[in-house]
Design brief:
alpha/beta, 8-stranded mixed sheet, 6-stranded mixed sheet
Length: 568
């Protein structure tokens, strides 16, 4: 695109070891460690860091990280004040390269398979040493100490050690930032990330299938990253850690969801895969945002795991998403976004580097964020969002306990033709617990805990379809956003729970006969389709897809949960 810079020279990590002020010890004097003294420094020496050579910058000021990223990493200051960074070859997560160490303290709890691939302890030690050896060659090593989890009873202390200012700033935004006193008393972390992403894994090491490796060791309480500089690996890595620790250590339920709270303290959890409207619908101006992605439903309420948001940027504009657009300012990170060479204006329409352009910003940059990001109330409503391109599912259904478990384990949405090459008709996507790549325990453990908590709290569970009505994609039309918002409002004000319901066949869902201003014919897919026979065939087809997808979980579920699915 004319006037837009796609900086080939800035997508790697150039000049890292060859800048003029090698070592740069005189830049900040003895304060450069930013409070890393005594026992803290001993921890680094014991881990294998050469404290005589490297220059540690702990919890460096945002301005300092900006300057270093621009000077040494090819970052660019955007016109809005945000920092544009580039992650190199990898512009998204590498799920096939994610591994968990098979060791005695956690092996019986992990859901082993394609999601959680086994790694032996010796290979982890090799990769860990490789990462530390690489970090020891850097003139600047950045440390960020922060927290995961807003509730002090259940939070963990996380230490990130990395070679890029960009990565330090990213985790400064995504973790919960400690106060000066908390930093002074931080002590030994509960989990440590060694991010040497610019340095590849050795493909000839046992168990390695590529130059990329993202690995977690629960016994050592460590994570090692090699061969990818995509910052999202750290965010989702900590989420996976919390997906293990919260149920196993604390007995609490970690969830891939957004959450908001009404003026009366009523909390809603939103679940949904990409394209279902989770971010849009949970960002409600009439409600406070607890968080947009990762939460824990605890014995005492709901709390956000993160201190920031990691939003998609493709097509972003001030009209459609004013809250996110307004959060892109000084302190925020724009990741792999191209920009105008003359004005430094970000180009959110350009996907020349990747379609997965992102922005990371502190959650307080959202005007209606609830700080601290927690509620002492149990959720009133749980909403599963799905985008059904087959046009079968109703816009809203009320689920019972067994159905809540079934649909949670299924994690259904669909891709529409044109979203990926080779897709000519709607394609189902089943991602268990609405976040399969991050699940660590068997999905049924999370589903059971969810059902128990909903029953104990009297929480209502709703299935909301933001997809097509009156026909499949290409024939019907997508449910208008105003009608979906009206449905969500009716859930929040309690009127929908008092509605008169009827049964929706095959899927055996309870659907309301009326919801405020929403057209009655839209609420019942049977009525919305002109061709009733075509609807029956499509319904049966989708039901069969559900049954097949659920086979992998059936053996670990009660007969009642298995029977809660569609009947073919």
């Amino acid at each position: 695109m004319p006037g837009t810079l796609k900086p080939e020279s800035r997508t790697g990590t150039p000049h890292r070891a060859s800048y003029e002020e090698s070592g740069s010890h005189h830049d900040h004097g003895p304060e450069a460690t930013y409070g890393l003294l005594g026992k803290d420094l001993d921890l680094f020496s014991e881990a294998g860091f050469d404290m005589e050579k490297i220059h540690l910058k702990r919890n460096a000021p945002v301005a300092q990280l900006y300057e270093d990223a621009i000077k040494y990493e090819g970052a660019v200051l955007a016109s809005s004040g945000a920092l544009i960074n580039f992650s190199g070859k990898k512009t998204g997560r590498s799920p096939k390269d994610k591994r968990i160490v098979y060791e005695e303290t956690s092996k019986d709890d992990i859901w082993w398979g394609t999601v959680n691939i086994k790694m032996d302890e010796h290979t982890f030690e090799i990769n860990r040493e490789r990462a530390i050896d690489y970090l020891n060659t850097r003139d600047n090593v950045y440390v960020f100490d922060g927290f995961a989890g807003w509730d002090p009873k259940y939070r963990i202390k996380v230490r990130v050690i990395c070679a890029r200012a960009y990565h330090a700033l990213f985790m400064h935004n995504m973790l919960i930032r400690p106060t000066a006193k908390e930093l002074e008393e931080f002590g030994e972390p509960d989990f440590t990330i060694y991010n040497a992403g610019a340095f590849p894994a050795n493909r000839f090491t046992a168990g390695m299938t590529s130059a990329t490796s993202v690995e977690v060791n629960f016994k050592r309480k460590e994570m090692v990253i090699l061969g990818t500089e995509y910052a999202g690996e750290m965010k989702k890595g900590i989420f996976s850690v919390m997906h293990y620790l919260q149920p196993v250590k604390f007995g609490q339920l970690s969830l891939h969801s957004s959450a908001n709270e009404g003026k009366d303290g009523d909390v809603t959890l939103f679940f949904g895969l990409s394209g279902t409207g989770k971010t849009t619908l949970s960002a409600d101006p009439a409600r406070m945002l607890i968080g947009d992605d990762e939460h824990v439903w605890s014995d005492t309420g709901v709390f956000n795991i993160e201190g920031g948001c990691y939003a998609k940027c493709v097509g972003l504009n001030a009209e459609k998403e004013p809250e996110i657009f307004g959060a892109i300012r000084f302190g925020s990170i724009l990741e792999n976004v191209t920009y105008s060479y003359d004005t430094r204006e970000p180009n959110y329409e350009d996907t020349g580097i990747t379609e997965n352009t992102r922005c990371a910003y502190p959650i307080e940059y959202i005007a209606n964020a609830k700080i601290p990001c927690l509620s002492n109330n149990q959720p009133t409503n749980v909403i599963y969002l799905t985008c059904d391109a087959f046009g079968v599912l109703p816009p809203v259904s009320l689920l019972n306990s067994e159905q809540a478990q079934y649909w949670f384990l299924s994690g259904y949405t669909s891709k529409t033709p044109g979203t990926e090459d080779g897709i000519a008709e709607p394609t189902p996507t089943f991602s268990t617990c609405f976040g399969q790549p991050f699940i660590v325990l068997h999905p049924s453990r999370y589903a059971t805990m969810l059902a128990q908590r909903m029953t104990a709290s009297g929480t209502k569970c709703w299935l909301v379809n933001t997809g097509w009505a009156g026909g499949a994609y290409g024939v019907g039309k997508r449910c208008p956003l105003k009608h979906t918002r009206a449905i969500i409002d009716a859930i929040h004000d309690g009127s929908l729970a008092k509605a008169e319901f009827t049964n929706f066949p095959t899927f055996n869902l309870k659907i309301p006969k009326a919801v405020g201003s929403v057209p009655a014919e839209l609420l019942d897919p049977v009525q919305a389709w002109a061709d009733k026979d075509a609807f029956k065939l499509q319904s049966k087809k989708l039901a069969g897809m559900f049954s097949k997808a659920f086979e992998r979980y059936a053996a670990d579920c009660s007969p009642e949960v298995v029977a809660a699915g569609p009947q073919v």
